[in-house]
Amino acid sequence: MIPYAKQSIDESDIEAVCEVLRSEFLTTGPVVSLFERAVARRVAMPHAVAFSSGTAALHAALVAIGIGPGDEVIVPPITFVATANAVIYCGATPVFADVDPNTLLLDPQKVQQKITSATRAVIAVDYAGQPANYPALRAITDQHDLVLLADACHSLGAALNETPAGALADLSIFSFHPVKPITAGEGGMVMTGNPLYAERMMRFRNHGIDKDHSQRAALESWEYDMVELGYNYRLTDIQSALGLSQLKRLDEFTRRRGEIANRYLDGFSAQAGFSPLAVRAGVKHAYHLFVIKLHDAFEQQHRLALYRRLRSVGVGVNVHYRPVYNNRYYQTSVEPGDVLCPVAEQSYQRILSLPIYPSMVDADIQFVIDQVLMATDEILTVD
Fold first, then answer.
1. What is the mean pLDDT, run by run of 10 residues, along the chain of 383 residues?
2. How far is CA 297 from CA 292, 315, 350, 377, in A?
3. Distance between CA 177 and CA 6 in Å, rounded?
4. 308 by DSSP, 3-state: which?
5. Quick one: fold of 11-247?
6. Nearest-CA neighbor of 83 among 74, 139, 108?
C-alpha cells in the first residue's frame, strides 16, 4: 500500500535521538529550548512554546488568550476535530463558519456573518498546507477586537506573500505528528509575538507552576507555586531532538512535496472527472495533503467505489475531513448554534486525498496517477 502520508526518517534523525538518550536529560532539558528557538527563527517570530501535541498547543493557545465559559470561537468545519475540541476544553463554544468552495479554507464573509457579542477569537485552518486568507481575516478580527489564531498544523514550510506560515496570526499552532511537514513523533508548538501569551503557555504546560526546574536551579531554591490549573503538556528532549533534526530538512521536504503535487497536476490536466483544489495568489503551498474534488458526475456511491477500487490496488487514498459538527459527539453533546455549512457539506461528499510524502519515488507517483485515471474512467463509463 502506498499510504496517503508517512514520516521520512534518516540516520541523522536516529543519531540525534540517540545522542539525547545518552545524555543527562530526557525531558525538561536543553534540547526543548533549542528546538523552540530554531522554529522561531525559521518563521521569524519572537516566541515559540513547545507542547506534547498539536492538540495540547491549540488548548494552551486558547487558554493564553483567556477563552472560557460563555465565549464563542469561530472555526471552520473542514478540519481535524482537535481544532474545535480545544474550544470545548476551555468551556467555550465552537461556532462553525463555512469554507470557500475552491480551496476549502475558512471563508471570511461567512466569518463576518457568525460574529456575535460573545465572539472572542477566530481560528483559521491552513487546510492541506495552504495558508488561509489572513489579510481578509485580519481586517475582520481587528474591526471586532478579536484574536486571530492560525491552526497551521498542515502548513509549516508554506508562506503567504513571502510571510511564512507561523507568522500570519496572533498565535499560530504547528503539529509534529508523523504525517506532518516535519515530525517529532508527536508534539506541537505555538508561535506568538506576545510575551505574555508565551509566559502563560509555558506555565500552563507545566501544571500551572510558576517556576520550572531550570528557573529554580538558577535561583538556588526549591520553591515553586502552582498559581493556576495547568496540565502536563511538556515535549521531551527525545522528541525535540527528532524535531530539530527534521527541521534541517524542511526545505528539502517542502520542495519534494511541491514536485509531487506538480506531477499530479500535469498528470491530471486532461481528465474531466475531478479537479485539484485551487491555490490562492501569493501562496507557497506546503502540500501536507493533495486533495482532489470530484465533479458532479460522481455521486456519493461513486466516490466510495473509487475509494475502494484505489485501495484495492494499493493506492492509500483517504478523506479529510467530514464536517466536525457531523460527528456523533457534536450531534449529541454540543450546541454550537446554527451549523449549516452547505459548502462544507457538499465538498465532503466529493473530496479524496491522494498519497503525498517526501520519500515517495517517481514510480509510485506515476502509479497513483495511472490508477486514479483508470479508476475514474471505469466508474464514469460504467455509470
1. 97 98 96 98 98 98 98 98 98 97 98 98 99 98 98 98 98 98 98 98 96 83 92 98 98 98 96 92 98 84 92 98 95 74 95 98 98 91 68
2. 14, 22, 10, 11
3. 10
4. helix
5. Aspartate Aminotransferase; domain 2 (3.40.640)
6. 74
pLDDT at 296: 82
Q: What is the DSSP letter of 129?
A: G
- Note whether 86 and 149 are within 8 A (CB): no
**Distance separating alpha carbons of residues 287 and 277, to the nearest angstrom:** 11
**In this predicted structure, what is the pLDDT of residue 49?**
98
pTM here is 0.96
Q: Which residues contact 376 (CB under 8 A, 6 or more apart)?
A: 271, 273, 274, 306
Question: How much is the pLDDT for 217?
Answer: 82
Residues in contact with 41: Cβ distance below 8 Å, sequence separation at least 6, in sequence order: none
Cell numbers representing residue 353 in the block:
486525498
What confidence score (pLDDT) does residue 60 get?
98
**Cα-only R_g, the chain:** 21
Residues of the chain with CATH 3.40.640.10: 11-247
Kind plus residue range of the DSSP H or E element containing 55: helix 54-64
Measured between alpha carbons, how far is 46 from 257 in angstroms, rounded to an integer? 28
- Contact between residue 197 and residue 206 where contact means Cβ atoms under 8 Å apart: no
In the chain, the DSSP E strands lie at 47-51, 72-75, 93-96, 119-125, 147-151, 159-160, 163-164, 171-175, 188-192, 274-276, 283-284, 290-294, 351-354
Which residues contact residue 240 at a Cβ distance below 8 angstroms, ignoring those fewer than 6 apart? Answer: 20, 31, 32, 34, 35, 50, 184, 187
Every domain range in the chain assigned CATH 3.90.1150.10: 250-382
Q: Is residue 284 flagged as an active site residue?
A: no
- What is d(CA 179, CA 176) in angstroms, rounded to the nearest whole number? 8
- Domain 250-382: give its CATH architecture: Alpha-Beta Complex (3.90)
With CA atoms as reference, report the closest residue to 84 among 334, 261, 258, 365: 334
Residue tagged active-site, from 110, 180, 211, 293: 180
Maximum C-alpha span of the chain: 77
